[in-house]
Amino acid sequence: MKKLLLLFSVIFFAHLSAQSRGKDYSEILKSKSIYEINAFLRDAHPDDPRRSVLKPRVMDMMKEYIKNAKPGDQKVKQMQDWLAMLKRRPSTKISFEEMNAIIKQKQIAKYQKQLQMGQAAVVYTPSTPKNVFIEPTTPEVAKPSAAIPDAEASEFNMLMAENPVEHKNKTVKILNSLFDNDPNTKECIVMIENKSDCNIIVRMDGIGNTKYRLPVPAHGDNSVVVQKGDYLFTSIVCGAQYASQKTIQKALMVALGSSAKK
Question: pTM of the prediction?
Fold first, then answer.
């Protein structure tokens, strides 16, 4: 009878998980993939009985991977992080608040380093205006569309070329905002992560004359301290228009674009 109940529970939770997440975990007990099992532990119901089997299994798999990894394998650190998390919690899933805290600590370390080393810590080479080609998005398109002039290159270079005093003042302001946990403060930090292959300028238009321009290098990030309120975010990401309305009342991170590189 107990075996029958366990079997029923497994089938029920497998069906529930697949429905709620759109993923098929019906064969997960046969899986030998660290990433697939790790994803299941993040998605599955807390009472799913398969957890008691798969969690120790994937931890052993991670330990084995680390043991046999070649020097310089970049996946090792990720496996170590996951192992540390699995020793403390049911899965490697983290909350939105935890993710924000991690990002915040990384930003604090970044800007503290810049403040200690001065502008020399920021290495930037101005780019020349170029054409941005938009690749076809469907197999039916026989040839790429026309080139779009990178009209923002000069403006991007100008925004990136801060003098040492401006850079120090901006860095201090950002650090103060990162450390400030007062909900009544009138300002907060916005961080933009650029995952695309193109330099971009993110424009934030608020009420009246409240406007900000933030240059963000390709595959990089940048931050700015803004007045709290409602903003229209716009940008041109590798020729594609981006626009989104956002209400900013606390620290915000926005990720734009995706790399074409595999």
Answer: 0.56
pLDDT at 138: 46
**Of the spans 9-23, 71-85, 137-151, 159-173, which averages the highest pLDDT?**
71-85
Q: Average pLDDT over the chain, rounded to whole?
A: 78
Q: Pick from 197, 200, 188, 185: which is nearest to 241 by CA?
A: 200
Residue partners of 229: CB distance under 8 A and separation at least 6: 206, 207, 210, 247, 248
Residues 6+ apart with CB under 8 A from 62: 34, 79, 82, 83, 86
User: How many whole angstroms separate alpha carbon 148 and alpha carbon 150?
Assistant: 6
Domain spans, the chain: 2-93, 98-256
Query: Are residues 59 and 37 in contact, defined by beta-carbon separation less than 8 angstroms?
Result: no
* More reliable by pLDDT, 3 or 101: 101
For domain 98-256, which architecture applies?
Sandwich (2.60)
The CA distance from 58 to 35, in Å, is: 9
| Among 225, 218, 204, CA closest to 153 | 218
